[in-house]
Fold these 3 entries.
Entry 1:
Amino acid sequence: MNLRFVTKTMHAYLDYPVAAALIGLPFVLGLGISNSLALWLSVGTGIAALLLTILTDHKTGIIRVLPYMFHLAVDALVGVVFVIAPFVFGFSGVDAAFYWINAAAVLTVVSLHQPEAATTPVVV
């Protein structure tokens, strides 16, 4: 049984709501109590995620100039940054939990990515 079930298309449809959540949820949850950077790191990451999605060569990309594998690498990097940010910046309480939960979600989606089948050109 293959546990890698997140397809490129599934990932593409998740990108816009995730970017919106990264921008909006910090205000709804009142992030920034332990450090104001807890609010703005998420907002900045959400804006960057929106731009990355717009520029990615996948189903919901608008200006498809960035390879999807680059997009996945950036997502993985964001997941790692979100794991360590609470330690580096002294986030605590809901600030830290927000980043660790998001890190777990991002790293899970990236790790469950289903590689695309290699396509070989048909020679006639």
Entry 2:
Amino acid sequence: MSSAVRSRKVGRVPMPAVKKANGVPLYAQIREALRRQISAGELKPGTKLPGEDALTEQFGVSRMTVRQGVSELIDEGLLYRRRGVGTFVSQRHVQRDHNRLTTFFDSAAAEGFDARIEVLAQEVVPAKHMVAQALDLKEGEPVIYIRSLRFADGLPITLHDEYVPYKLFPELLYQEMTTMMSWEALERSGYRVKHAVQKVEALPAEHNIATVLQMEKGAPILFKHRTVIAEDGNPLEFALCYSRGDSYALTMTLKR
């Protein structure tokens, strides 16, 4: 778990009473009471829940009932348990719909996050073998390299390394890239995007990536490399993306 997510003890959090005669199982009432407190921000990400004994006393139910209600929220990903330490509120996840090509801002806004992008580098570099191969260039040809860090509610979520052929759009070197993606800028110049091809892997965070994303070394990340293709078949952008495993989720529709 990220070192950026500091554990905050909450002591005795006031909990709504549960009613034994309303037809709703007690564990479900506890589950929904905790869910409402998480949604309302009364229990913030990283907050440690009171222990089972405290929750048992506050709700006036058995430990088994408390355990079942809490376990269902753990199964949903709203809570997580650290063995020997306690149960904590999970980070909210930026949900990315990977059935279509969307921007970070689109996804973050849909989930109610305050999103921003910080550009860490924007320069011309020679294309290395992997980049040249993805962009159908000769090795060493100039490409515009943009490294950016994406934030949601102030937390660094994704580190992006993007490459665009310099010959297609040299003006991109001077474009403000804090409110748009590079392929969006290319579209505004007349290059129409048709589709993107990408591969996603789960990896442990290396030291430099973990440092930028404010995570512990070895914590899980989602690593993605993506090539954006134009209508004429030419590759427009190649990107390497490193996203926090505790704050980023992918949604895909699978058809048979």
Entry 3:
Amino acid sequence: MRRAVFVLAAVSCLSAFTCSQTAEELVYKNIEAKGGIEKIKSAKTRRMTGRLKNARGLTAVFAQTNARPGLVRQTFTLQGMTAIQAYDGSTGWQTNPFRGRKDPELMGEDTLRDLLLASDFDGPLVDYAEKGNKIEYLGHDLVDGDDALRLKVTLKNGDIIYYYLDPDTYLEIRKEIQQFVRGSVREHVVEVGSYKPVNGVMYPFSISEGSRNSPGAQMTTIEKIEVNVAVQDSDFALPASLRTEEKKSGLVGVH
């Protein structure tokens, strides 16, 4: 009996070790499939431009600019109006004329989560341990009837991302994101595809996302990606009108 328990414990430890190793290997293969860590980190800035179409058929011009270590600015232009969301490394802010708010305003925790994800220049898998993220290999699963490898990534802030990797290319084809905000769970699904190389790194040029009940509610078609382009700190910086307000409120980004 004691021997059986010992063997069972040994097998369990070996299984956990194997899963841990497999998760690390899959992350490594994913990074290599994208071009390798040196190529990925050679990009210091990045600008993506394209078009975003929602479920109602409205199409907006979309742009996202990233700069290391964790700066991001997104713009959405429709019918002559432009909405802006930006993160300067510590604080998120936005202007949203589509809701009648033309002046910049600070972003709260619930609206900032997606922007914080977008600010991670290389994504949660690169240098995951240094970022405080944890990874687990969950085995095989199906995506639209095709085989996929499933990784669970628990971010430092407690949010969870399930990555589905193509078993042939090791590139991600789907992400399921769970965000925990003020006691509630917010879930959405992201499908990515149409990968193309830019400066030796593979990027998806097709991104479909939405809730679990409406997974394809928003479709983004990337038309151009540029790396190591000139950017200004002012593109991300908190507008002057908000600096005093930030000091008063003490509202900053969530890390």
